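haha ok so turns out i had the wrong file open the whole time. this is the CORRECT one, sorry everyone. sequence first:
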Amino acid sequence: MEENKRPEEEQNIPKSSPEETNPVEAPSNKTEETSNIEDSSMQVNNTTANEDNSASNEFSSRIPLQELKDKVDELKAKMSKHIIGQESFLELLIVAMLSDGHVLIEGVPGVAKTLTAKLFAKSINTEFNRIQFTPDLMPSDVLGTSIYNEKSKEFEFKKGPVFSNIVLIDEINRAPAKTQSALFEIMEERQVSIDSQVFKMQPPFMVLATQNPIEQEGTYALPEAQLDRFLFKIKIDYPALEDEILILSNHHERKNVLPEEMMKKVIETEALAKFKSMLNDIQVETKIFNYIAQIIHQTRKHPHLLLGASPRASIGVLTAAKAFAAIYGRDFVTPEDVKKALHPVLNHRIVLSPEREMEGMTSEEVVDMIVQTIEIPR
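then structure:
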C-alpha cells in the first residue's frame, strides 16, 4: 500500500513554474552584480584619478611658473623671427638675465652678436645703451665725470653711458686695461664709486660684451679677474646652410625695415623682478649640490688644465641651473639643468695646459671628459 501511495504523493507534488526554473535568470542576476561591481570600481578609479590630478595640480602650482614659461616662450618666438638658427644663444641670454649675470659674446664679425643684444634689450621694457670700446677710450668716458658748475659753484657728477639697465659693450677687448678695469666694481657690486660718492645701479642691470676672437692686433686680452665677472661666455658660430637661406629670405621680405623697429617688448620690468625672485624657491636636493661640487673640484686637479674653476663658478652653475629649471616650468633642478650650464659657465674660467692647447683641445672637451667621470645623481 505504501508503495502504491508513493506515486500518488509524487503526482501531488506541485511543479515549479517556468519562471522559477528559467535558467537564463541566474546569469542575468550575476551580470547585474558584475555591472554594479564594475560601476563601483570605476567610481573608485575616478576618485583616485581625481585625487591624483588634484595632487599633480597642487605639485605643479607649488611655484606659479606658468607665466614665466609663457613669457620666455613668447620671447624666444619673437626673437627667432629675426635671429635665425641661434636658439641656444637666445636661451642662454634669458637664463643670464634671470640669474642676474653678465654675458661675454664671442664670435667672428657678421654673426649678429650686436643685433641679438639690441633685440634682446628691446624685448624687455628697460633702458639700453651701447658703448663702442676703442684703444683711446678712458674710464671717465664709460663711468662719467665731475664737471664744475659755475652757477652753483660746485662740482656735479655727469653719469656716463654705463648708467643704464642693459649695456652693450662692443669689442670690449679693444680698450686698454685701465678702461676694462673700470667695469670691475660696476659688474660685481652694481655700483660706481667716484669722488667719494657711491652711485647705485638701478635694477635690472646687465652687461653684454662682444669680442672678436680672430683679430689680435690692436686688442687687449681680458685678464682672468675680468673674465670671472661674466656668468656666461657664449661662442657664436656660422649658421647652417638652411638657416642662411632663411636669413636671406627674411632680409628680402623686410624691405629694408630694421629688425629693431619690428621688435616689440615682451616682458615688463616689474614682471622680470617677480620672475627673478621665483628662482629663490626652486628646490635643489643635496645630491645636486654634490654633483656640482664634484665637477668643479675635478677641474682643479685635471691634468689637462692649468687653472681650474673657483667657487664663484660653482655658484654660477647652480644659479643658471635653477633658471633653466624655471624656464621649463619645473620647480626643481635636475642633472640635465646642471649639464646645460657647464659649458657657458666654465669655458672662460678654466685654462688649458700649453700642451693640450697646442694640440687643439678645447675647454668644452675637457669639461665633457670630467662630466663622464662623475656619477649622475638619480
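The longest strand covers residues 144-149.
again sry for the mixup
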